[in-house]
C-alpha cells in the first residue's frame, strides 16, 4: 500500500518564541516560519518538546499549531505533536489537528505513566482514530520512560494511518530493527548525532531541532546522503556537524542551545519557560564558536573546496 504521506527531507520541530513575560511572540514565530521556508526545510512540526510543549496549555498548543499552519499556507506540510501526560489532552490535540487541516500528527508515549506495550498501543490507536491523519510515532524512552517495542509496533502498524516513526532512543540496534523488520513504517532520524547512520540504513528524513537555526546545513547532509547517495561527502558534512551534536545531545541544555542558535541568526527566540533557564555568557560564546566553524566547514564541503 502506498503511504498516505511520504517522509522526505528535513523536518523542523519549531521552537516557541516567548516575550520576556512568557507570552507567545507571534511576530517572531512568523519570522521563523518564513526563514525556515526560505532555508529549504521540507516540513514543520508544532508542539514538540523543542517547542516547550510541556510548559504550555492545550489551548496554547492548539493556537500555536493553527498559527504555524496558517503561516505555512500549504508551502510546507505541518505535523502537530499530540504528546501529553493525559489522554484527553492528546485527543483534544489530535482532533484539533484534524480540524485545522494539519498534514499529520506526531504521537508519543504518555510520559511518567509507564504503560505496558499493549496499553501504550491501545492509547496510540485511540489518538489515531481521533485524528484520522497520517501518524508519525515518536519513540523517545529517555523522556517517556518506556520504549515502543515489538509488541507495540506489531499492534499499531495494523493501522494504515501509521506511516512513520521518529526514532530517538539513541540505540543503533533500533535502526537495524526498524529497517529490517518494519519496512512498512518509514524511519526518521530523531537522534541528531546518528543522522548518518539513519541515512545509511535507508531513512529518507531527519527531524532535527538544529534546523531551526542551521536549515541549509541540515538540508546539505540530507541531499548528500539520501538524494545523491554520496556518503563520502555525507561523512565529511557529518564530521563538521559533530561538535554541534555534542553540544545539543550531550550538553544538558538542548532547548536553551536551540533558542540561542535562533538568536544568532538575528531572529527573536526569547526566554524559556520555567523550569529552564538561559545559557550563561561562556555557554553562549562556546555555542556561537561551534556554529561559526560548522557553517564555514559545511559551505566549503558543499562547494567542493
Automatic annotation (TrEMBL):
SMART domains, per the entry: DHDPS (SM01130)
Is Lyase there in the keyword field? yes
Keyword presence, Ion transport = no
Any single Pfam family the record assigns to this protein:
DHDPS
Query: What keyword terms does UniProt attach to this protein?
Result: Lyase, Schiff base
User: Its family?
Assistant: Belongs to the DapA family.
- What's the protein name? Dihydrodipicolinate synthase family protein
